[in-house]
């Protein structure tokens, strides 16, 4: 239903402020995802590098540059349609990574060298409260990944049937790919498990808690999958940037269209890479994206536009329920944004800009 009402937003608002609000929020979401993707992919490269050369000279920002250059090259695919095979490969890689990492966590938890499990929470009530809302924002980012299949499902009739099939598949994969490694990782390492669970399985000191071949294959899987995610989520920004720069009467690979496409896409990825290197706070970035992007776009805006477009009686249960959802999730979004930015500021105060470590 969300995608249908997002289309209602665009049709109802035309080129007014609501149209630009939706486009701005979705662009912010995609930019945040691109930054997080580059950061996590670089982190995986650094894991591989440090396991082979523990005292090597390369730093995190070197790997961020490598990932950004690779994405800049791959992003010259001119349209979202040309990414369909990469998108399918990303699905297979995601499932493979989930199985490998979850098996490694179970093995680590059962190992005689398993770390002491500590499931305690912060003793500060305020920290617990803010962390709870930060977690809600992160969950919103996780489940907000359904935006793409929702939009894609509305492109051809019958929209409702296609949308339901797309969402069932999407959320089935999300539940499997996110919850299985989260549960096994938390069971194996407790509350100190890192956002990139591979770092918990491969600690800085001591031996790895899983076979080398398994860890190497998992890193390769997630690295390739992250490149695919970066390509897919960047397409919205590319479409917006190239709306006025491209010439539809010329070929996709004509010099008139290739030059601005190469320049704009490279500059966009350079910006994302710079932000990833300057603020390597992966968990915080995900929280901010969820709070300021996914929560208003997926939980607040649809019910607002439902009330505007279909105008149910103001005292009807449906209108009141929609209003309650709007108020509750607006509050959750505001508090979540504050909690996410607070965590980002606290982490920034403990680490220098362009840190060599990704901060949870």
TrEMBL record:
Q: Which PANTHER family match?
A: OS05G0424000 PROTEIN-RELATED
Bilayer-spanning residue ranges: 60-77, 89-110, 130-148, 168-189, 209-233, 262-279, 285-306, 318-341
Q: Name one GO biological process term.
A: amino acid transport
The principal localisation class reads: membrane
Recite the UniProt keywords alphabetically.
Answer: Amino-acid transport, Membrane, Transmembrane, Transmembrane helix, Transport
How does this protein sit in the membrane?
Multi-pass membrane protein
Record's subcellular location: Cell membrane
UniProt organism field = Oryza meyeriana var. granulata
Q: Provide GO CC annotations from the record.
A: plasma membrane
What the entry lists under InterPro entries is as follows: AA_transpt_TM
The identity of this protein, by name, is: Amino acid transporter transmembrane domain-containing protein
Q: Where is the Amino acid transporter transmembrane domain?
A: 15-342
Q: Which Pfam families does the UniProt record give?
A: Aa_trans
């Amino acid at each position: 239903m969300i995608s249908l009402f997002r289309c209602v937003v665009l049709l109802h608002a035309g080129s007014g402020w609501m149209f630009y609000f939706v486009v701005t929020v979705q662009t912010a979401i995609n930019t945040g995802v691109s930054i997080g993707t580059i950061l996590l992919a670089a982190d995986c490269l650094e894991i591989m590098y440090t396991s082979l050369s523990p005292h090597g000279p390369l730093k995190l920002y070197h790997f961020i540059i490598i990932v950004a250059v690779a994405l800049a090259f791959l992003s010259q695919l001119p349209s979202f349609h040309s990414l369909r095979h990469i998108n399918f490969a990303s699905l297979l890689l995601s499932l493979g990574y989930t199985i490998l990492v979850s098996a490694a966590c179970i093995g680590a938890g059962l190992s005689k060298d398993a770390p002491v499990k500590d499931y305690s929470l912060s003793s500060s009530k305020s920290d617990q409260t803010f962390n709870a809302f930060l977690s809600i924002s992160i969950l919103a980012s996780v489940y907000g990944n359904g935006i793409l299949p929702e939009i894609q499902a509305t492109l051809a009739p019958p929209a409702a049937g296609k949308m339901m099939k797309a969402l069932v598949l999407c959320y089935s994969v999300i539940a499997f790919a996110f919850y299985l490694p989260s549960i096994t990782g938390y069971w194996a390492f407790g509350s100190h498990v890192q956002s990139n669970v591979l770092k918990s399985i491969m600690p800085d000191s001591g031996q790895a808690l899983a076979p080398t071949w398994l860890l190497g294959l998992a890193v390769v899987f997630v690295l390739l999958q992250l490149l695919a995610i970066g390509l897919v989520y960047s397409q919205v920004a590319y479409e917006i940037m190239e709306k006025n720069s491209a010439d539809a009467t010329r070929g996709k690979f004509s010099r008139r269209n290739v030059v601005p496409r190469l320049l704009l896409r490279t500059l966009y990825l350079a910006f994302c890479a710079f932000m990833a290197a300057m603020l390597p706070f992966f968990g915080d970035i995900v929280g901010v994206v969820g709070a300021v992007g996914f929560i208003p776009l997926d939980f607040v805006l649809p019910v607002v536009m439902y009330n505007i477009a279909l105008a149910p009686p103001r005292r009807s249960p449906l209108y009141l329920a929609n209003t309650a959802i709007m108020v509750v999730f607006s509050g959750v979004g505001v508090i979540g944004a504050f909690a996410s930015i607070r965590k980002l500021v606290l982490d920034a105060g403990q680490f220098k800009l362009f840190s060599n470590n990704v901060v949870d």
